[in-house]
Amino acid sequence: MAMLPIATAMAAPAGRTCHLPGAEEALRCFNVTVPLDYNKPGKTIVVHATVAPAYREAARADPLFVLAGGPGQAGSDILPVIDAAFRRVRATRDIVLIDQRGTGLSGKLDCKSPPDIDTMSEEQLDAEVRRCIEKIGAPYDRYTTDAAARDIEKVRVALGYRQINLWGGSYGTRLGQHYARLYPANVRTLILDGVAAPDQIIPAGGRDAQAALETTFRQCESDAACKRAFPALRSEFASLSAKLDKGPLTLTMADPRTTAVRPVQISSRRFAATVHRVLYAQPDAHSLPFLVHSAYNGRWEPFVARSNRDTDFSADGSMSGPLYLAVVCAEDYPLLTPELAAADTRGSFLGAPLASQLAALCPVINVRPVRYPAPTVIAAPVLMLSGAQDPVTPPRRAVSAARWMKASQHLVVPNGGHIVSTLGCVPRLLREFLDQPGRPVQGDCVNEIPAPTFQLDAAGPQP
């Protein structure tokens, strides 16, 4: 099939040269003024976009817009993905990363972790979040997926592009699909990694999380070294969960950040949330048996250190909690009926902590329920990517989303977790799809992406 003709780009503003954390080179930064409320023009806010220009001067006119996940993550939080996933794409196309309103450099709604977070109870943590939400005092009901999609259109126009390609990761797949339905003529292709189906309710993730945990257990049992090192892994995990269900555990230990000896509280919610996050990426998931076994034997330091990664300097730690709540409390929580929550958490290690936390915080964020119309069919070619061991958006979610797509392809990485665009041959496949979206992607190479080794001791993964 012949390549699609190259469109002619409109004249774009120059922007400014910028150096941002996560990128060694100078990039181009743009601030685009958009309405705060698209139904009531007047007040405005600024949305930030970062452009990594194509390497070739004779670049194609259809850039790749990158939409981060969360909700709550900004494009400027994931700048390393430019090289890790899009280096081949960038040879011929600009890469545009957008900071969704309320994240990153687009007026981040920010609640910083208190310095004594490790010693605080769940009630104290929730009270701290409530105080921060009230202190920020933003009009949270203006921070919806719909508003973010309309912001993307403002950025497209301001930067002078005609048709664009969209890459979305995790929640970014929801945002990308919504944009494609609002502005179908402006979308050339979509690449969706870790696909959120239109009917997916973000807090209802117990079933998928438990499936990923069970897979990790089975893989350890099938690996001779892992099985020998952790022969009672399932019972040790069950024992820890049961103990924490009875109440928080307070330990005296050296803080992994500072080495200062201090009390650290491990609650059921913290334990489940950390396990869930560990399952996102396969290298981390293959450290879980070691973390569980160490904690079971009273050595919690490795587990706490891993838990701290999400509130320190990692990409996850830079997410906007209030933006997450603004979106989820408006678009997902109203659909989380008691019956659905009970069915989803039955038999899952996640239990009901997230739903109970949302029940406490959503009234404070004070947003009206948002009911989107039934999805329309997306006509643009779509490449969907899934990790077989994804604990959040497993392949079944992409299969559900495909019902509303006219021309979709779906690749599943057997040894992949949540977000697989950086793995193995996938960056090459992204370029091939964008160059010829009407041609089937020959994706057999994803089956050759190896599984990481298990961590058996404090020295790290096996060689």
If you had to describe this structure to a student in words, what would you say it looks like?
With 463 residues, the chain is of the alpha/beta class. The protein has a domain at 16-114 and 138-200 and 372-448: Rossmann fold (3-Layer(aba) Sandwich). It is built from 17 helices and 13 strands. The strands form three sheets. Strands 1-2-3-5-4-6-7-10-11 form a nine-stranded mixed sheet, sandwiched between helices. A two-stranded antiparallel ribbon has the order 8-9. A hairpin with an 8-residue loop joins strand 2 and strand 3 (44-52). Helix 3 (122-136) runs parallel beside helix 15, helix 4 (145-159) packs across helix 5 and helix 13 (321-331) packs across helix 15. It starts with 15 loop residues before the first strand and ends with a strand. The model is unreliable at 1-12 and 312-317 (pLDDT under 50). Keywords: Hydrolase.
* Oligomeric organization of the protein chains: single chain
**Secondary-structure element sequence?**
EEEEHHEHHEHEHHHEEHHHHHHHEHEHEE
Rg from Cα:
22 Å
What's the CATH architecture of the domain at 16-114 and 138-200 and 372-448? Answer: 3-Layer(aba) Sandwich
Under CATH, the topology of the domain at 16-114 and 138-200 and 372-448 can be stated as Rossmann fold
The CATH H-level superfamily of the domain at 16-114 and 138-200 and 372-448 is Alpha/Beta hydrolase fold, catalytic domain
Largest sheet: 9 strands, mixed
Lateral strand order in the biggest sheet: 1-2-3-5-4-6-7-10-11
Dominant shape: globular
